[in-house]
Specification:
four-stranded mixed sheet; 10 helices; globular
Length: about 325
């Protein structure tokens, strides 16, 4: 009897308990909040498993053995596979999210020296050995020297083992200034098979004054990877060194854009793995796989847009059927 194994994608990083304000405006001491588990990497894993049920997703981390850590475990356990060490000596990070207006969303963290800042390569390797792809963000190396070392050991392992690496920059200014982030990101750019960032992030960190097209060409010249550049409400652009694919995005009523980038990345990767075998994933390009990449970009934009329509990082992430529905209904924007 043959057992068909699902492709396995792993990710690791910090997830915090998030207090997401239900009201608009600055922090109010007795204001009401939605309690959620929030972290770019766990968001990606949850969203990926929703958009493509034929993938095995694993989120790896450390949590404090406290109420916040237990809340996160309970919240995530039915949404993705989890490989977590509970740390009785350290705490679980906390995030506060306030919505000042439609374009201004303020995050405050209590995360320095949290349990997740102690993530070690020994936590990652048991899952890495059987992984078909790895997802990383530019958040994790900023958490601590320990996390920095863990990230680069993982990058080297992926390179030496020929495991596709998906890198989402996810720049977080409260964690480090642009100059420090750039120094680390420039070292990371030689590893990814897919690189994604926002146009605003690119300009904030690299400060080159480029257009979106100039930026994707610049980053491809450095990485030789598939480069995805998101443009907020104006969609996204893809470049692999051969052709540019653009999508103008989908217009929705924005309630909470936090998590849209994670949804975009999961939508793209999930759709891509639906149409390309994981054995052939490193060989894709816009010359031979234009239709698959174009569709994946549409799905990514649909996921990012729909995620903005409700509060909560993953609350309104669509499945593939809902993503395809918005694509069919909005062909004028494709």
């Amino acid at each position: 009897m043959w057992i068909l194994l699902m492709p396995k994608l792993i990710t690791f990083g910090e997830t915090m308990v998030q207090y997401n304000a239900t009201y608009d405006g600055p922090f109010i001491e007795d204001g009401t909040y939605i309690l959620d588990a929030a972290g770019a990497e766990s968001n990606f894993a949850i969203n990926l498993s929703k958009i493509n049920e034929d993938l095995e997703t694993v989120w790896i981390s450390r949590l404090g053995n406290d109420e916040a850590g237990k809340f996160i475990l309970e919240n995530l356990k039915c949404k993705t596979k989890i490989s977590v060490k509970m740390d009785a000596s350290n705490f679980t990070g906390i995030s506060y999210l306030n919505h000042i207006d439609e374009d201004t969303h303020v995050k405050k963290y209590v995360r320095k020296n949290s349990a997740a800042s102690k993530i070690d390569f020994s936590d990652i390797k048991p899952q890495l050995i059987t992984a078909d792809a790895i997802h990383l963000t530019g958040i994790t190396p900023a958490l601590s020297d320990q996390c920095y070392r863990t990230v680069f050991k993982t990058l080297e392992y992926s390179k030496n083992s020929n495991i596709p690496l998906i890198l989402d920059i996810n720049y977080r200014e409260p964690l480090w200034p642009p100059s420090a982030a750039k120094q680390t990101y420039d070292l990371m750019l030689k590893y990814p098979f897919i690189l994604k960032m926002g146009l605003d992030e690119a300009e904030k960190v690299w400060q080159l004054g480029f257009t979106d097209i100039e930026y994707v060409k610049y980053f491809h010249s450095v990485t030789k990877s598939i480069v995805l550049l998101t443009r907020g409400s104006n969609g996204a652009i893809l470049y692999d060194g051969n052709r540019i694919i653009e999508h103008s995005g989908y217009k929705v009523n924005v309630v909470d854009p936090i998590g849209a980038g994670d949804a975009f990345m999961a939508g793209f990767v999930g759709a891509l793995f639906k149409h390309i075998s994981n054995k052939n994933i490193l060989e894709i390009n816009t010359l031979t796989n234009h239709k698959e990449l174009e569709l994946s970009l549409k799905v990514a934009n649909a996921c990012g847009a729909l995620t903005c329509t409700a509060r909560g990082d993953t609350a309104s992430m669509p499945n593939i059927q809902d993503a395809m529905k918005i694509i069919r209904e909005n062909k004028i924007f494709s």
